[in-house]
Design a protein that fits this description.
The chain is mainly beta. The chain has five helices and 20 strands.
Length: 347
Amino acid sequence: MTRTIDFKYRVVRNGAAFCELRAVEGGNPQILMDDGSNIKTKFSGRFLPPAEEVNWLTDEIRPSMIIDGAEHRLGVFLPANVTEETDTGPRVEIDAYDRGWTVKDQRTEYMIFFPAGMNYLSAVGSLLAECGLTLISTVPTEEVLAEDRADWDIGTPYLDIVNQLLAEINYEDLWFDADGMARLEPKATPTASNIEHTLDENSVESLMLPGIRKQTDFHSAPNVFICVCSNADKDAAMVAVAENTNPQSPLSIQRRGRRISALVNVDNIASQEELQLYADRMVTDSLMKGEIIDVTTCLLPGYGVGDIVALRYGDISSICRAKRWSMDLTVGGRMAITLERVVLNLD
């Protein structure tokens, strides 16, 4: 399979392309996604000084990959560290982060208050608006705050508050897609119905390289989750219990022959139903923990944060969740993807 590939690094001002950056030879432009980080994606590299006067405090960088003439956006990034070098020729070294950095940098300067009955996503949206973010993709929810909320000390990063509120309704952490759009969406249980990518060693479209690496760690992994939400405004604590009884899971109560319990304290939650969903989700997440699979491919655009991936390699035929990936933005570059494997095999 032969592809023509190129890259563009546009500097964006007020939403419009302002000028372009050119990577120096050996500049190693790279994008890194880590689902476990508060700010999910990072862009870095070394470039020639731009022809125009860039305002590194407010301008953004929009890298893209061009495959066979088709352009694929790879994100919108805010420069965090810019180092100008002259010892080996003029160049600019850049570390930049997705727009989550804006939300993390802004902190409460007064007591944040949300009234009881306010929709959770309305509360989140108001915080994002204060950060100047209006490009938002939202999956609606009917969940509302059960009580008045003023839980956060002055100086709390807005990103901490946003992710706390999203967790209380079983939504994913805030993340930003390849267009720089904020994504507010429920946590998705990996199933055959929501696969976003397929990596198949027998498919030329997967562009997989030979060899994978598996790492397994089941030590003391719980198979019973006891979630407790206590709040002074409630008459009694809410409790939800979820058990791993999946016969295909090596962590299950049946397979291990014993109950290994974990007590999880939840500061706040929308309702008893959401607390049970939260506990059930912890069981689902536990089905992916323990086995990590590292694969290497040629560059594959279109991967986001926590995408669901079908993997077929050797005797593995499974659904996975992408936990990390990195892309070397060079001709002939590689993409390293770290997957968490779901216990259930594909049908």
